[in-house]
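hey can u check if this looks right to u? its 612 residues, i copy pasted from the old doc so theres a chance i mangled smth
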Amino acid sequence: MTPPPARRRRGGAPERSFPRRGSVRRAQMITTYGVGSLVAVDNESFIVSGIDSWNIGEAPTIHEHRLARVLGVKSFRLPPASDDTSRDGVRVRRFPLWHSCPNCNALQHVRGFNSPSGKNECGDCDEELVPSRFVMACAKGHIDDFPYWKWAHRSNRQEGESGFCGGEMRLRTSGKTASLRSVLISCTCGIPEVSMEGAFRRQALSGLKVFCSGRSPWLKDAPTEHCSETPRTLQRGSSVAWQPIVRTALSIPPWSDGLAARLEPHWEDLRELGMDPAAIGIYLKALTMKETYEFPVDRVMALLESENHEDGAPEQEQSRDDAYVALRKQEYERLREGRPESGSDHEEQFICEPPRSSSSLLVPYGVTGPMLVKRLREVRALKAFSRVDTPDTHADVHEAPLSSAPVDWLPAMEVQGEGVFLRLDEQRLDSWARSAAVAARVERIRNNHLRMLRERSRDARKVPDSPASPRMVLLHTLAHVLINEWSLDGGYPTASLRERLYTDDTMAGILICTATSDSAGSLGGLVAQGEPDRLEPALHSALERARWCSADPLCVESRGSGVGGINLAACHACVLLPETSCEHNNGLLDRALLVGTPEDPSIGFFHEALRL
């Protein structure tokens, strides 16, 4: 019997007839790998180019009229997709440009390695090059290669001033520790070998007279800008090297049905017709014959009237920040009013109904008007991004642009889901908030937050105000404890649930929802938790859990925790959530406002209900 032929062992990398490519999901182009971010692909590193270089010919259009008006664009586009044989899609550029060879330890610009065509290898060793682990960036979004030469020659003032020593640089790792002390840089000019220890200090680069280069390598042909910001050393994969600034909006009536989406390409023509029903009727009749879809005149007129009402907002709501508040107020009113499923179009994207059973069980808790949001659509648009400084809801951070040329669209994604909307009795809230002990705790949070905002503000005269108030902190903490509770009973992990807060002098509600880019976000597991017979025991259990923490008494007696001390009784053992679930980066929380403290239970809004 002839033995079978021996199997050939294949190499680590499969043979391919096309260059190696990396891929990311479309949703990640909004939240993780958007414009200006650094993407690692195998042993290479790239920066995502601006949207003016994207090929969006086949990219689907996303319509969300309310959000588009606030952001000053006509529409949104889903990031373009491409396959292995296509050259379309999102463009990237190689960055950083300084690489090292793991074999000969050479450290230089990638062009100095004489790599073979189409490969990123050392021309002498045939080893794959390693992109620099370190970059430098500033708070205005500029980013550049780390100045290795100046760092290595910092002790040699004369050569440092001349700018070049004629030697060749080397980078190696001693392997003794995992710290920066083991990353060693040398030069053949004879200087002592130095480590990267201390490179991440705030003034490390400014002490070497290294200033921001003003470069924006993600923008095509972008000129170098004069920048007075102090550059910081960052790791290439650091979270602060790229932070997205995302704006979101729910699709609510009258913009949530299929009619509004079909009219979006013709909206400019309809505006020019004014509010003349006859002229609009003629235009819609011609449009119906062209697209074989009936456009009712009364519904189109309702859309135009709604837009005119938004245009007539008072002067105090003309700023961009106030426009976002106006979006929330519109959503709050629609969530209160609801929209029944019966009689709605099958394309309707907003279905909100009251529970079938009585809500009297919730009266002792001060919860009123629960609504089951059975169908929900949310649009998330990437407006800009930041570096070094973490964007906070009310922090004054610089917004780096997505494009060097004017564009009338932004990248976005739409998600479908479900949720539960809850409100608290406003009279009871106001009575509770007047307590001196409650006001003192919230004032401590507010002062800490204002101090942090002043430190982050670029202009001391324009420090944004803190949103911290008794109503806001209470609702925010309540949302967190409910998300933790429902993650155990609703079938969704905590990271897939999100909060949406509606808090100011006229609003006192929270929406806890789940949303995904496919139909899996509407399985009904979360909506079922909104029925009063389920909601009451879940709320009671969540509040009972909030009465103690494994970190007590340190947690409940805290004078300030979290970044900037903007939390009080809140830690990872009790109420903190994954950052994707929270609108305020796990800040402005205090569970003592829910259940009180051992010394003073009365400061808890729900302390009376827990005694029953």
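Residues 1-20, 158-163, 312-318 have pLDDT under 50 and may be disordered.
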